[in-house]
Amino acid sequence: MTMEEIELVTIANYLRPESLSEAYELNQKKANRVLGGMMWLRLCSPRIQNAIDLSGLDLDYIKETEEAFEIGAMCSLRSLETHPGLETYFRGAIKESVRHIVGVQFRNQATVGGSIYGRFGFSDVLTCLLALDTEVVLVHAGKMTLAEFADRKRDRDILEKIIIKKDGRRVVYLSQRATKTDFPVAACAVSKKEDTWYVSVGARPAKAELAVIHGEPAETLGEKAVADMKFGSNMRGSAEYREAIAKVLVRRAANAVLEES
Ligand SMILES: Cc1cc2nc3c(=O)[nH]c(=O)nc-3n(C[C@H](O)[C@H](O)[C@H](O)COP(=O)(O)OP(=O)(O)OC[C@H]3O[C@@H](n4cnc5c(N)ncnc54)[C@H](O)[C@@H]3O)c2cc1C
Question: Taking every annotated instance into account, which residue ranges of this chain make up the domain FAD-binding PCMH-type (predicted)?
Answer without folding.
Answer: 6-169
